[in-house]
Amino acid sequence: MKKILQNSTLLAMLGLTIFLHSCKVEAPPMPNNAYATLKTYMLVNNLDLPALLTAWVVDPNGTSASGIVDDATSSIPGYTVYDLRSAADFAANHIKDAKNVILKDVITTTEALGLAKDAKILVVCLTGQTAGQAVMALRLLGWSKAQVLKWGMAGWNSTFQTPWVNNSGFVDPAKGDLAVGNANWVTTAAPANGSFAEPTLTSASADGAAILKERVQAVLTAGFSTADGATVLGAPATYSIVNYWSAADYTTFGHFARAFNIPVISLTNDLVKGFDPSKEMLIYCYTGQTSSVASFWMNVLGYKTKGIGFGANRMVYTSLKAASKAVYKGPKAWTVTQ
Which of 22, 59, 179, 185 has the fewest Cβ atoms nearer than 10 Å? Predict the structure, then answer.
């Protein structure tokens, strides 16, 4: 009898144990903090934005002026040249020996070509702005000598100058001074920058290099677009805007009303925390070309940024030119091929 009671007690205890375990609430899995992994990887591997903005853009000067373009042939020896324009535009006219590449395919094309990480790659578009996206993608993944052709095809030959003519004061000062006399362009001191939480990224990988490649391709695939400067000028309070100039230039040349001033965008010292990852934020520079490379880098990290097309060349061209800042001054006269 005693033995039966002991067995019954053991069975009861076993049943209770099974019941308790079956009711136990498991802790939710920890989120994959891909942003932290990516941030660490980029800092360790010298992929912070200031480090990547070394010799990233090159003027279309001839070799006789210590440039990259062969004066006799209008070719660019020593470089692999990518032209990001449409297939139709490329077929009509392009730089000698250039390859027509779609923006989203710039990494896979480079891998397929087997280009060494120290290869010289020159990326060309129409205005120099789209090319910035491709160059930042290439630099982030190790092709450290990738460069933008400054001003794009609009700086190569007068056939292609129309976009810059229409969005700067090169021909018509009025087209480059939209902000002059506008109440929404001011010279006031900058508002205090915010300090926001970091973006949230998820990835199936816990490897920094793999996460970076995944993010670079995702941003390339998403495509490139810019905000229209005239529209932003009409109602700047409806946008979150970042001026990417020095503090001195911010007040000297003026800025969109309520724009923040972030002269250095960097992971170091958490300077990126001036950007709110929950909002689309617009970045502008002098030409739209620097903001292109910066916005790509920011978006790889999980931010939602966009450049303002043609930058301040469309807002205060005359003042910028007088101060010897970067402004479109017209094309060269290099030849093209079909």
Answer: 22
